[in-house]
Amino acid sequence: MPISSVYPSVPLVDTVDFWSLVQIKISKYMDRVCMIDGATEAKVTYKEFHSQVLRMRNNLWQRGMRKGDVFMNLTPNSNQAPVVMFACLSLGGIYTASNPVFTPGEIRTQLLDSNTRFFATTQLLLPVATEALKGIDLKLLIVYDSVGRAAVSFEDMLDPATPEAPKVTIHPREDIALMLFTSGTTGKPKGALISHYNLVSNNLQASSELSYFHGDDSVSSTVFFVPLFHIFGIFLFPHAITHGKTVVFMAKFHVEDYLSLLCKYQTPVAAVAPPIATLLAKSPIIDRYDLSFLRHLFVGAAPVLPSIEQAVKKRLPHLELRQTMGMTEMGLALVIPKGRNVQGSAGLMLPKTECKVKNSPDMHVLNICVCFKVVDPNSGGELTANQEGEVCFRGPQTMVGYMNNPEATEKAIDKDGWLATGDIGYYNRDGYIFITDRLKEVIKCKGFQVIPSMLESLLMEHDAVADAAVIGIPDDYSGEIPKAFVVLKENKTATSKEIQGFVAGKVAPYKHLKGGVQFIDMIPKSVTGKVLRRVLKEKNGSVSGANNYFQSEAN
């Protein structure tokens, strides 16, 4: 049956664009430090940030940028990237970003799919960018740290003598602000189109009790390595600055650099992807640092295994781990409230969002503030609490659709506005949502459904296992059978037979690891921590292939 959010509705507006909202919210913080480069310690105040956005806006207009033009950023996290993003949005442009570790071919695909005409990168990434840009007609190429007159630099784009750009009329509900490419973990990445209204709504929804900063706009810092080409980073940066926080950027994650910055800036709130939660749970490096100042750890981009959550709490008992859930197509949807954590849950629904759950092909659907229900795929009848299905959302933050892909849009969003997430989950009687796995990753063995993440969580309980992933492999008799890829802890040993027996003693026969156990050095994951099961399937039986992929994604 439908359920509603426990939180009161929040007023939303459809008359203001995203940059205008941010300007209003940051106006009271002008004397504070807005951004710090974690490596160089270069600082930008809110006043300077605001001025840079306006000057960048003027120079983009002078160089031909108009409403609807697409600007792609190919850079690591930096003090410059947010300036370019907001300048682009203020002109009615469409901002997109690519992963700095992508190959020229991967970047080129996004360039062509997005019809990019304005592009920014760094000297270090320029050779890759140049290869990707061959034959593409750009209006402007910016190389942030360019010296001399070889290319237009970031400083060139802040020329204060440039005439002021005219006001551009933006229709928040219709006009696109972002084109963010999906991770492609289950297929080719698609360009999700996100309107100004989507961004404004999500920012206002998250400014409630469910805020990462609990409504606190006091002076404090947050160390930021979450990539600004990913929805997690795109959501989190504006959320931080509209609460007056100082964002300390890391261009590239390194565990000791991260821990040192946390300690240096005494960060009370951190937002991370699941691999960092695993590191906090298991790495001996953590013991070298006093993290008593860190009070809240938000984990997003992918679910955290219950075993990892337990290990973090045991090791850092003062720390409250709070899962969140969002997606490229919808931004933030769920957050664990302060002091109300339920282990394994992705959180409660945000205000103004609806949720329902559908079984099998259409399983679970989430709705923030309106309703949540579970529907049987065969009969159409509604399911009840604690029954698994596909999670679906409906809310003001739901994307407009996919770029030049009406078929995929229609498949993702039904006629009533429900967005199918492809995640399997359920809700309990208190309204907490639990995400258990990806629908397309479910293993179908002898007609039964086997959830990979459940077996992975079980494997993580083995004393010798540092990390694990499970896939289904073809079997003539059963259809599919589970196979585990396992990373052993340093100085620990275990045999395949031992691990198979460990699992067999705890689950039903159809969940046994009849596909075997393969030991590898690293589990292939995306930069946001999602297990790349398709890579494991493609490289089934090949250890080196999976390891090489992980390196290319993580570095």
TrEMBL record:
Question: What SUPFAM superfamilies does the record tag this protein with?
Answer: Acetyl-CoA synthetase-like
This protein's UniProt keywords? Ligase
Q: Which CDD domains match?
A: Firefly_Luc_like
- Ranges for the AMP-binding enzyme C-terminal domain? 455-530
Start and end of every AMP-dependent synthetase/ligase domain? 26-402
Q: Provide any one GO MF term from the record.
A: CoA-ligase activity
Query: Pfam families under this entry?
Result: AMP-binding, AMP-binding_C
Q: Which residues form a coiled coil?
A: none
User: Could you name the domain of life of the organism this protein comes from?
Assistant: Eukaryota
Q: Which family does it belong to?
A: Belongs to the ATP-dependent AMP-binding enzyme family.
Descriptive protein name: 4-coumarate--CoA ligase
- Organism in which the protein naturally occurs: Capitella teleta (Polychaete worm)
The organism's taxonomy opens as: Eukaryota, Metazoa, Spiralia, Lophotrochozoa, Annelida
